[in-house]
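Field log, afternoon session.

UNIT: design team B
ACTIVITY: writing a sequence onto a fixed backbone
BACKBONE:
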């Protein structure tokens, strides 16, 4: 922990007992309070969700509820600004996320701000950088010790959200600086202050880390270099139409490069000025949340597409398959149920299709598929389900939003088959029963398909049985079936 720059003073009029009491309190004060863990949003298993984890930085003892309120606002927004999961397209896929919060106590409120000569003793040792905007924790240029910053993040994640139960942990550091905007995005950590435009900054920074999106503004304030960041899905140096990463979004009538004029507002094009430079780098939209904050802007179609696809890289649209085993031996003709437990976007469906032996079952479009083994017969077969998110938000490689699961089936159930009848003589009907049934079966007849009467009970011999009835003309309308076991 960093020491405060303020010089502490201690009144020196101690008795022997007050000195002991002071030293005891000083010793107890070095022991951090137990973290407080709270689940804010539970949409399903942590192994198949993006698990947002808010961490408290610069919050002193007794301010836990204030921190949890900030976390709730970060998710849902306030009366003026949408939050993380009420901003599109993340709002559309809200059920793909869980959210948790861990409160830890800092000695001082806030964060280090070298430009303001402000030093604070905080849990993660956060510091506003040279611009008084970018917030980082060790290891950084101010403190190279991993254990003083990122190490504490990783320890909390390990202790409270172990990787085996939470496969996609997304930590967000909430820095208690209500009068100063700031934030940053790392490979797997977002930091944001509680300043006036903190909600918009949070969404912008999350888009960096979650979607790998680049900044679309054209000035880095002299401290950012485009060459160190390179091309992203939303920033490019390509000017050949077919080579532009978002070419599928540019209409044939939109010129490339695209003039930055009102005539092209709301259209995807190739606008110059991005990646911290005014020339040589291009963005897809005139203005977007990756270019500006403070105006409640939307993500442009290209950034939205990238975010949706990044969610699919972490979360399957299927929570579970049933049965879970990929190969099944079926030794009964009783119906089986196969299932694909799919997630649901907020405003559009996910399409589910079932196939047997490569052929679509046209009536099967639900998560549950009732399978009758007798519909295929004994032998090897395949059953497949395909789940497709046909969202209009994705035009580039929409197949990335498709997932398929297959089962290999070997059917070997006791079956009975009635062969084509013959009429060997007057008053007679004859047909064979064949199959693999080893037990007894009954042959029944009906004149109306509702009321059935047993004629005989037999078993197959060498896989067949020949049946002949001599009073067939007495029943001008007759239906026959086999029932096993007899009843």
């Amino acid at each position: 922990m960093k020491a405060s720059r303020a010089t502490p003073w201690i009144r020196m009029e101690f008795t022997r007992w007050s000195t002991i009491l002071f030293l005891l309190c000083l010793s107890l004060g070095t022991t951090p309070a137990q973290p407080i863990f709270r689940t804010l949003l539970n949409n399903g298993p942590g192994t198949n969700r993006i698990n947002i984890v808010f961490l408290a930085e610069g919050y002193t003892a007794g301010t836990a509820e204030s921190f949890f309120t900030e976390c709730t606002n970060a998710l849902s927004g306030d009366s003026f600004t949408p939050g993380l999961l009420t901003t599109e397209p993340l709002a559309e896929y809200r059920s793909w996320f869980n959210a948790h919060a861990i409160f830890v106590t800092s000695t001082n409120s806030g964060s280090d701000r070298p430009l303001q000569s402000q030093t604070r003793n905080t849990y993660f040792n956060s510091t506003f950088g040279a611009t008084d905007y970018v917030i980082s924790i060790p290891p950084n240029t101010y403190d190279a010790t991993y254990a003083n910053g990122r190490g504490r993040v990783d320890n909390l994640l390990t202790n409270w959200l172990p990787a085996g139960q939470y496969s996609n942990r997304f930590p967000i550091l909430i820095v208690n600086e209500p009068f100063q905007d700031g934030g940053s995005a790392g490979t797997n950590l977002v930091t944001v202050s509680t300043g006036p435009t903190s909600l918009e900054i949070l969404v912008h920074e999350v888009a960096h880390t979650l979607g790998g999106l680049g900044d679309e503004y054209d000035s880095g304030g002299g401290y950012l270099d485009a060459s160190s960041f390179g091309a992203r899905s939303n920033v490019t140096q390509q000017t050949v139409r077919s080579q532009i990463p978002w070419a599928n979004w540019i209409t044939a009538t939109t010129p490339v490069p695209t003039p930055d004029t009102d005539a092209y507002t709301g259209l995807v094009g190739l606008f110059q000025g991005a990646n911290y430079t005014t020339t040589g780098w291009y963005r897809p939209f005139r203005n977007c949340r990756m270019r500006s904050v403070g105006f409640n802007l939307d993500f442009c179609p290209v950034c939205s597409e990238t975010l949706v696809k990044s969610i699919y890289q972490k979360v399957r649209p299927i929570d579970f398959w049933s049965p879970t085993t990929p190969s099944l031996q079926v030794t009964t003709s009783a119906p089986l149920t196969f299932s694909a437990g799919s997630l649901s976007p907020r405003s559009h469906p996910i399409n589910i299709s079932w196939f047997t032996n490569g052929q679509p079952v046209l009536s099967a479009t639900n998560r549950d598929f009732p399978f009758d083994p007798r519909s295929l017969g004994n032998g090897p077969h395949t059953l497949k389900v395909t789940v497709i998110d046909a969202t209009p938000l994705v035009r580039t490689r929409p197949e990335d939003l498709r997932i398929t699961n297959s089962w290999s089936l070997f059917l070997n159930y006791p079956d009975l088959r009635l062969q084509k009848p013959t009429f060997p003589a007057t008053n007679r009907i004859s047909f064979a029963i064949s199959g693999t049934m080893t037990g007894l079966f009954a042959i029944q007849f009906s004149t109306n398909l509702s009321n059935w009467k047993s004629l005989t009970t037999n078993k197959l011999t060498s896989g067949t049985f020949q049946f002949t009835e001599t009073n067939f003309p007495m029943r001008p309308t007759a239906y026959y079936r086999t029932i096993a076991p007899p009843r």
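LOG NOTE: Helices lie at 16-28, 64-76, 150-160, 198-211, 301-314.
NEXT ACTIVITY: expression trials, pending approval
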